[in-house]
Amino acid sequence: MTFRPIRIVGDPVLRTPCSPIDEITPGVKALVEDLIENVDMDGRAGLAANQIGVSLRAFSWNIEGEIGYILNPVIVELSDDEFQDGEEGCLSVPDLWFPTKRSLYARAEGTDLDGRKKVVEGEGLMGRCIQHEVDHLDGHLYIDRLDRETRKKAMRAIRDL
């Protein structure tokens, strides 16, 4: 396994929108292998490419025993009448969890390594994961979605990391 260190809040790669993957190269295949291997650890639900320092639109997930990946994901549907407001954390904001409002359901479309259309969808934790990881690929962290008071607390806690 190729261990890839996780980039931490403050690293500019986390705030830069990722580039689309236009061609499946050996480097892209290696990136997907690394994303899958590095998400397959206790406590990891999802991992975006920029969290391991690669500014390309790809993420992997590890939800309820299912491990997978998607390239060039775009969220195409969110539940607009059902929400979840549970605690959310992030490998790039270690050891901190804050209540984060998300749509209950999310559906993203992208491709696989063979260029075929791929759909990832789900409710609850999977819905949260899709939204969280696509946010990463767009250059956002979950702390950006916190209400004002919670965000103040989060920023103080991050300064203390």
Automatic annotation (TrEMBL):
The keyword Iron applies. Keywords: Hydrolase, Iron, Metal-binding, Protein biosynthesis. One of its GO terms (biological process) is translation. It holds the Pfam family Pep_deformylase. CDD domains: Pep_deformylase. Its EC number is 3.5.1.88. GO terms for molecular function: metal ion binding; peptide deformylase activity. It comes from the Bacteria. SUPFAM superfamilies: Peptide deformylase. Binds 1 Fe(2+) ion. It catalyses: N-terminal N-formyl-L-methionyl-[peptide] + H2O = N-terminal L-methionyl-[peptide] + formate. The active site is at E133. HAMAP family: Pep_deformylase. Belongs to the polypeptide deformylase family. NCBIfam families: pept_deformyl (TIGR00079), PRK00150.1-3 (NF001159). This is Peptide deformylase. The gene is def.
